Amino acid sequence: MKEGSVIALYYAGRLTQFPQALFGTAVATVSLPLMSSSSLSSGFDKMRDVLGTGIRMVLLTILPASVGLMILARPIVALLFERGQFTVAATAMTSCALLFYATGLIGYAGVSLMTASFYSLKDTKTPVKIAAFCMVLNIVLNLILMGPLQVGGLALASAVASFANLSLLMLFLKKRIGGLGIKNILPSFLKMLLASSLLAAFCAGSHGFFKGGSRLVHMGITIPLGILVYVLTLYLLKCEEITKITKRGRFLS
């Protein structure tokens, strides 16, 4: 491993945790009491509705954040950290780690929501057992990927392990409550995927337009306009989640 890899992973991890905490953990925190009360009073039908709403909200917010971090990894890291002893080489290493960490954002956020679902069922053992298995998987993937990808391999191993964690949690939860309603989410997910693709194209195009200019201006214009592109695309596609927010001022109820 190259010198500075630990610091690169640290800074990239902190940047990844920002949208995860802002959206993923927030949705899980709000969903937990709703799922707990619904599972006690109305059985699993109402709980599945609340869980489905939580999944939609995670996808709505985390998907564009993941895409944005991947496309804008280098300029974001350069703007925030590149000064003094944090050199261009350090920026390259940190942005590489950020790129791979960002691929796992949906996994990280989804794990928080699924873990909250198990907690609402008074089951704390299953998430811990799955997390232990995925920790071992992460270690194995670290050993495999750190050679060819260096610091990026460690970040990618974490991302893959997060998706494995999410997949196992969803599998066990589906058996427990009789389904997750994923088919109902698919139409909205495809619209979010299209909007995120346009967001990615816009952010990639901004590189050439602002090349050689101020990093602060670049990010100060690109990020808000990118969000606007994403939201407007979903609005034009009549995405149910955006419609609920604009009409009611909230999504989770």
Structure characteristics:
253 residues, mainly alpha
Biggest sheet: strands, sense, closure? none
Write down how many β-strands occur, each being a DSSP E stretch of 2 or more residues. Answer: 0
Mean pLDDT: 89
What is the count of DSSP helices, taking H or I runs of 4+ residues? 10
Structural class comes to: mainly alpha
Element order, helices and strands? HHHHHHHHHH
Shape: globular
Q: Beta-strand percentage?
A: under 5%
Helix content: over 70%
Radius of gyration: 19 Å
Kindly report how far apart the N and C termini lie: 48 Å
Short description:
The chain has 253 residues and is mostly helical.
Secondary-structure blueprint:
Layout (H helix, E strand, L loop, with lengths): L4 H37 L2 H28 L1 H9 L6 H16 L1 H16 L4 H25 L1 H27 L4 H28 L5 H22 L3 H9 L5
Helix pairs in contact: 1-2, 1-4, 1-5, 2-4, 2-5, 2-8, 3-4, 3-9, 4-7, 5-7, 6-7, 8-9
Structural account:
This protein has 253 residues and is an all-alpha fold. It has a domain at 5-181. Helices cover 86% and strands 0% of the residues. The protein is built from 10 helices and no strands. The chain has helices at 5-41, 44-71, 73-81, 88-103, 105-120, 125-149, 151-177, 182-209, 215-236, 240-248. Helix 8 packs antiparallel against helix 9 (215-236). The radius of gyration is 19 Å and the shape is globular.
